[in-house]
Fold this sequence. Notes:
Elements: H1 3-19, H2 21-42, H3 50-78, H4 84-113, H5 118-150, H6 153-176, H7 183-195
Amino acid sequence: MNMSLFSRLGRKYLDLLKVHPVKTKAMTSFSLMAAADVAVQSRSEERLDPIRTLRFASFGFLFGPAGHAWYGLLDRVFKPSASLGGLIKSVSVDQLGFAPIILGTFFTYLCVLEGKGAEATRLKLSQDLPPTVVNNWFLWVPTQIINFKYVPEFLRLPVVSSVALLWNIYLAVMTSKPVKPREADNRFKHDSLETA
Length: 196
């Protein structure tokens, strides 16, 4: 492919963002989450599970419209590119409020689609959500500082989606990780068997 093809594709994508921002962002997030899950699965010796990829990517499809609304709201309320105060407020609200909520929603959503019960979902959240939120901050705080300060609002979600390709690989690994039973839960079950 030559550079003019990439240039034309880039212009077409920008046009789509302006004409159909929500649909374009939904499909961008869907595609990049699918690519991340396929990348993780390709490292396994097992066959590619397209249903797993579809479940994972479908969250991206839902996140696109949510992210569009969220970044628009932050821009209107805090005007992050206009002042240091607005930038700090935007990044803080995004990372201390929105990120933990969206990550918790993500884990819960996948557990539901995988048919896991309430207890398995609770264990998944208690084991994987805290380290995921902390790791999220290492990547996303610097990314969002740059994103909010220098990137026009209509391009913020595509920037996030692009950086998220790496992040989504991490999430695909975290969601495919089996949940370990808690020691306290095992001890309780063992004690109740002895008293029976």
